[in-house]
Specification:
By secondary structure, the chain is an alpha/beta fold. It is built from 15 helices and 16 strands.
Length: 378
């Protein structure tokens, strides 16, 4: 059956872990899923055709960057983001809040919104909940995000203030939204404080969003603290709606997040590592292809990986491209790194459907531990 837009159907569940399908105007999203990040309407060094070959079922674009350049008015003139970047599948846009707080210069936050200077040219701009919804409606993504304030995770007084703003802004975003062909997700904040996370999850859940995001994690806290916060919100967020953990994307993070009820992930990590000449394997260990030890290595990056890069090119060739400063190195490494995560969640989904996630998880961490042990011994 074809699901109506934004209907979420859980196909199989094993404890807190589930495999589902989320309807959207541009096709069903099979969960759990990893979304490559196309910040400026492009996944760096990878074409839409290559993304499709990798099996990408959802990609992310960034409101802050596209608002500043080329401008959401231009994108709507060009027929919206799907047409502009020639991507036929589902797209998610974040609200731009994280980028305002991490990139913008001289920002000033008040209860109404944020005034900031562009990191591109120093020009002054103002974002409010209503404006971010308007921008995202112009962009035309399938899933859009409420405007929120991402605070430093350990600062409790500021997290309390940011939480109140995030909740008030979530209500204003709901009121501002006009397009019925977009799903607006609310965002849970609260730093590393269990009571604040619980309060936020309860408040956001009660607003009636079709899906929920967990923000403000993987921003400096420990893995144990991140897992603890996921376990807090997992008990509160409604099970019948998708959950999106923002900005998290190592293989280990995906397995740990899925085991705590997460359905959707995104991260710039795979393409960023590729641009810094690094590849990772299914179990998260990283290869720095700049190293001279790879200059005569005939093996692929990962002999078990079925991606285009590993099926056709050696470590020696990729190292040569890096040494020669050829752009193809970033493309081949990006294809491999993205493939690792997309294939991993695909295999996890199949394991859930077969009722074998626990076996999969135990095997994953056992092999990861064995690889780490081998690295120490060598």
């Amino acid at each position: 059956m074809v699901l109506p837009d934004f209907t979420f159907h859980v196909e199989a569940q094993e404890g807190r872990v589930r495999a589902g399908r989320l309807g959207s105007p541009h096709g069903e999203i099979l969960t759990p899923i990893f979304a490559p990040v196309g910040t400026q309407a492009t996944v760096k060094a990878v074409s839409p055709a290559q993304l499709a070959d990798l099996g990408a079922g959802l990609i992310l674009a960034n409101t802050y960057h596209l608002y500043l350049r080329p401008g959401d008015d231009l994108i709507v003139e060009m027929g919206g983001l799907h047409s502009f970047m020639n991507w036929p599948g589902p797209i998610l846009t974040d609200s731009g809040g994280f980028q305002v707080f991490s990139l913008a210069e001289n920002r000033r936050v008040d209860d109404d919104g944020v005034t900031f200077k562009s990191h591109l040219d120093g020009s002054t701009h103002r974002l409010t909940p209503e404006k971010t919804i308007g921008i995202q409606e112009n962009l035309g993504a399938d899933i859009i995000m409420a405007f929120d304030e991402c605070a430093e995770p350990y600062d409790r007084p500021y997290n309390e203030l940011a939480l109140e703003r995030t909740h008030a802004w979530a209500e204003r975003c709901l009121q501002a939204k006009t397009r019925k062909d977009q799903a607006l997700f609310g965002i849970v904040q609260g730093g590393i404080f269990p009571d604040l996370r619980a309060r936020s999850a309860e408040f956001i859940s009660n607003l009636g969003f079709p899906g929920h995001a967990i923000g403000g994690l993987s921003v400096g806290e420990t893995k144990a603290e991140m897992h603890a916060m996921l376990e807090v919100v997992d008990k509160i967020l409604p099970e019948g709606k998708p959950r999106y953990l923002m900005g998290v994307g190592t293989p280990e993070d995906l397995v740990n997040g899925i085991s705590r009820g997460i359905d959707i992930f995104d991260s710039v990590l795979p393409t960023r590592l590729a641009r810094h000449n690094a590849a990772f394997t299914r179990y998260g260990d990283r290869l720095n292809l700049v190293n001279a030890t790879f200059s005569r290595d005939p093996r692929p990056i990962d002999q078990q990986c079925p991606c285009y890069t590993c099926s056709n090119f050696s470590r020696a060739y990729i190292r040569h491209l890096i040494a020669a400063k050829e752009m193809l190195s970033a493309t081949l490494l990006s294809i491999h790194n993205l493939s690792v995560l997309i294939q991993l969640v695909h295999d996890i989904r199949n394991a859930i459907l077969e009722g074998k996630f626990r076996e999969f998880s135990d095997s994953f961490f056992a092999q990861k531990k064995e690889i780490a042990k081998d690295d120490v011994e060598t």
